[in-house]
Amino acid sequence: MDTKKYEALLASINLGSFTKAAQVLGYTQSGLTHMMNGLENEFGFQLLIRGHHGVKPTPNCSRILPYIQKLVETSAALDVEIKRVNSMKDSIIRIGSYSSIIMHWLSDAVKRFNAEYPDVTFEIKDGVSDEIYNWVLDGTIDIGFLSKQEEYKTEWITLRKDPLYAILPADDKYSSKVLPLTELNGKKFFMPSYGLNKDIDRVFNKYDIKPNISNSHMNYSVIISMVERGLGTSILSELLLKGRNDNIKIMETKPKIYRELGIAIQSQKYATNTVKKFIECTKNIVNEKYN
After folding, report:
1. What are the pLDDT digits (tens) for 176-200?
2. Cα angle at 161 between 179 and 183, to 5 degrees?
3. Residue 106 and residue 281: Cα distance in Å, rounded?
4. Kind of pairing, strands 155-169 and 234-237?
5. Is the pTM here over 0.90, yes or no?
6. DSSP structure class, residue 266
């Protein structure tokens, strides 16, 4: 809010002189006089009585002075609060993410970042695709880690293609090392939740695959347990399967299928320096893990 003209008016009245007000505010006397003339033209009535002994407010000016004073005070308070918000933004990074990304990527990225920037704190929420994208859009979080969805219009930073694998019961009779996606047609299939369902639906639509999909969307740990017991099949990502030792067959598919994992952000241009640095830190962590 530009309140310089109002501040100059108040200073002129309080000091009783254009000369003194100009000195305090860092203007020339002619510059301040020109500013007050412009303000009078803007308001449509005389604000100041000029004389050899200085300046004083007109009756009309006295009527509006309390409002001008409040406006200047409010503007100053707003400036202070904006600085506080920006200061907080620079020391807090708010993140939304899939739990698998938190576990395998973000935990390492946060640890490395805090070693260099110990004053930065993190607020991390796990969620599904729709939740995370909406959090980015409404400003609840600064950045979201998830799989790319074409229907959401945010800026996107690719981190890695995460391979998708078919999982079958350990005693399944299919003996080849690679499973054609067409083998899933008609088979009992457990659809994962947490956003992976969107990635799998996209694959099924692209290749016209029609398994017998369970009505329930399940947590991936529950799905693995169901597959272990021979109750059906599913598709899970490399990141979800990482570090597990389950009694199931994990098979590459033909054609190979992926989901694209990355970062959704409203605007890289207007992100804080701290957020930009953390994005670069995360990129480095991911690259190191797979190179």
Report:
1. 889 999 999 999 999 998 778 999 9
2. 15
3. 10
4. antiparallel
5. no
6. S
Residues 6 or more apart in contact with residue 274 via CB below 8 angstroms: 89, 90, 91, 93, 117, 120
DSSP state of 106: I
| Residue 193 phi, psi (nearest 5) | -105, -155
End-to-end Cα separation, the chain, in angstroms: 51
Q: Which residues of 228-250 are buried (b: 16+ CB within 10 A; e: fewer)?
A: eeeebbbbbbbbbbeeeeeebbe
Rounded-to-integer distance, Cα 288 and Cα 282, Å: 10
CA 157 to each of CA 161, 243, 266, 276, 279: distance values in angstroms, whole numbers, following the listed order: 12, 26, 11, 12, 9
Rg over alpha carbons for the chain, rounded to the nearest Å, is: 31
Omega before residue 255 within 30° of 0, cis: yes
Query: What DSSP character marks residue 105?
Result: I
Q: Identify which of 41, 47, 80 has the alpha carbon closest to the alpha carbon of residue 62.
A: 47
Whole-number Å distance between alpha carbons of 195 and 68: 53
pLDDT digits (tens, 9 = 90+) for 130-160: 899 999 998 899 999 999 988 888 899 999 9
26 token code pair? 């860092």
- Residue 260 has which token pair? 């694209």
Angle between helix 59-91 and 273-290 (nearest 10): 20
As a whole number of angstroms, the longest Cα–Cα distance in the chain is: 106
CA dist 247 and 171 (Å) reads 9
Length of the chain: 291
Grouping H, G, I as helix, E, B as strand and the rest as coil, residue 243 is coil
Question: Would you say 257 and 200 are in contact if contact means Cβ atoms under 8 Å apart?
Answer: no
Asked if 123 contacts 92 with a C-beta cutoff of 8 angstroms, the reply is yes
